[in-house]
Amino acid sequence: MHLDELQWFVVLAETEHVTDAAAELGVSQPTLSRALARLEDQLGAPLFDRVNRRLHLNAYGQILLEHARRSIAEIRSATERIAALRDPDTGTVRLAFLHSQASWFVPDLLRRFRAEAPRVQFDLVQGAAHVIVEQLANGQADLAITSPRPDGYRWRGLYLERLCLAVPRDHRLASRARIRLADAAGEPFVALAPGFGLRQLTDELCAEAGIAPQVVFEAMEIPTMEGLVAAGFGVAVVPVPRPERAEPGAVYVPLAAASAKRQLGLAWSAERQLPPAAQRFADFVIRQTYEDK
Fold first, then answer.
1. What are the φ/ψ torsions at residue 274 (nearest 5 degrees)?
2. Domain HTH lysR-type: where (predicted)?
3. What is the distance between the alpha carbons of residues 64 and 10, in angstroms, rounded to a whole number?
4. 206-226: per-residue pLDDT in tens?
């Protein structure tokens, strides 16, 4: 059943006159009659009663008319939404990002971009690194701000975060200017759950340092880790915080290893073309990050 034939049927049902409907649609009467015959054949029922060479919509036709109008409206709505999505000025950007970027980096980018493109809409999802990669893989996200770099995706590094060891204020390591992670061997660790990018980096750093830390609690967000460190539950590998976002009850001791850093970047599929609005946002993010350096 073609959309054109449904639209023809609606006009015919409203006029109940083949000649008038054909003239309104700009098709020949035989073409319209054949289209009606095909519809009736597919449905297995007549849609009009023929009385004195006139058409009168019957009960079957009333049912089809109701659904045809609804279907045409839905297709029209879908067409309008697709057009909006493909408009760089009014489209929608589906952006996934790490929990740790939700408090300052992503909101600041969005604020600045919306000043430039106020009509672009956003579908936002925050989550762990493995969730973000799944969102990119299944097409639920156009772009992702994540770490570490996911394999098989286009990537643009945005900035580096140095990693440190967060310890309670009265901890034996709190007075150090810099430490090796091996110095924390035997300490209880608070970490993110497996699947988070920072947990992956922490595990790699611990392996590099030759230690197998006892993880006493697995958190879902970095502020939770820092709060538990301040409460004396253990130590934690975290990014060096911005001064205004540091946990007052914790001390952040820089790690000496050159590999103790986290690269944040913008990732997107190498197999799918970005919608125009998403491409516009990606260009903006890359440009802003370059200009901020």
1. -70, 140
2. 1-58
3. 9
4. 999 999 999 999 999 999 999
